[in-house]
Amino acid sequence: MLKRFAMLGLSLMILAGCAKEVENIPNEENVPIEVDPKELIDLSLKPNESGKIMILMYHNIGEEEQTWTRTVDNLKKDLETLYEKGYRPISLSDYVTGNITTELGYTPVVLTFDDGNLNNYRYLEDGSLDPNCAVGILVEFNRTHPDFPLEATFFITSSNPFKQSQYAKEKVEALIEMGMDIGNHSKDHMNFKDASKDDLEEQLGYQAQYLETFTPEGYRVNTLALPYGSRPKNTDLEIYLQKGQYEDYSYENIAILNVGWYPALSPYHVDFNALSLPRVRASEMNVDNVGMYNYLSYFDNHPEEKFISDGNPDIITIPEDLVDKLTINESKELYTYPRQ
Ligand SMILES: [Zn+2]
Fold first, then answer.
1. Which of 28, 59, 253, 315 is 20 to 30 Å from the Cα of 232, by its Cα?
2. Ligand 1: distance of its center to the CA of 215 in Å?
3. CA of 246 to the centre of ligand 1 (A)
4. Residue 330 has what pLDDT?
């Protein structure tokens, strides 16, 4: 009897050993066991996808700091500061469409440059990229900080983007190839205050169509930075900022950017309006306490007001008391948690 029990025990041990091995073998359909993606969200990082996002506004990069010029060193300082404080660039179109892929625990930021001047994107005489133009600085920063994505939009007015006509197409193509964007800043940098319907359609339709002669096949110029931040006084004409027709070309903008003076809302916020987005001046000169560094220190002191990503564009994570502030479509899953 004893012997039989002993043998039974041995067979059970063998069976148990086999069972352990079986656990590591994929199941019959070879389907990996699903993990709820919400479990990957570390709530101790306090994700808040109803929080604010800065759209930073630059113009020129130059030797001397001026109201509308940032020096090379200051642009580098800005990028370093953003990096250190946990900000990571996203594209304007990902922002307005709510495709926020920013890593868990980090805050998205949108970089914009207005006018399309030479100091934004310059090739030197030997044909190499000037390390002291905006694009050169961004490319180098991304090379040394690969987790700071190369995302920025350059809003171009008038003809000859970036003012080296022999390189215009090459530059615009390279910019888009690198993942950055160009946007519309009107044909003549017109102040739209007194503009007519025809003016708006020409200024925006002509320019979008013109810029698309430089872009790769299929790329649409569909974002607008308002020159001087001005809108038509006659509000019935605002629709032509968004869409219209010039000759046989139709344009439609998915984002319209104003000039100042405060951080923008989350794209999932109930009051979000992609057709009137505020920007923050990326400067320390004449910013009237509403410049980039003012808001960076504000968010240092009020981290609960900034957007903190959950790392998953399909899940929208927020503290549960903010649920009334959100409106999300059914392609996204809402995930709430109690504030500590
Ligand atoms: Zn401008």
1. 59
2. 21
3. 22
4. 86
Segments in the chain below pLDDT 50: 1-24
| 339 contacts 320 by C-beta, under 8 angstroms | yes
**Torsion sign across C-alpha atoms 179, 290, 191, 193:** positive
Centre of ligand 1 to C-alpha 181, Å, is: 16
Residue 1 pLDDT: 38
pLDDT value of position 150:
98
Query: In 280-310, which positions are buried (b, 16+ CB within 10 angstroms) versus exposed (e)?
Result: bbbbeeebeeebbbbbbebbeeeeeebbbbb
> How far, in Å, from the CA of 189 to the mean position of ligand 1?
6
Residues with CB under 5 A from ligand 1 (ion): 114-115
- Please state, for a pLDDT cut of 90, what percent of the chain lies above it: 87
CA of 314 to the centre of ligand 1 (A): 35
Rounded to whole angstroms, the Cα distance separating 244 from 204 reads 8
The whole model's pTM is what? 0.90
Distance 153 CA to ligand 1 centre (A): 13
Predicted confidence at residue 131, as pLDDT, reads: 98
Q: Which two tokens stand for residue 324?
A: 């009334």
Interval between CA 300 and ligand 1 midpoint (Å): 30
pLDDT at position 232 is 98
Q: What's residue 15's pLDDT?
A: 40
Centroid of ligand 1 to alpha carbon of 113 (angstroms):
9
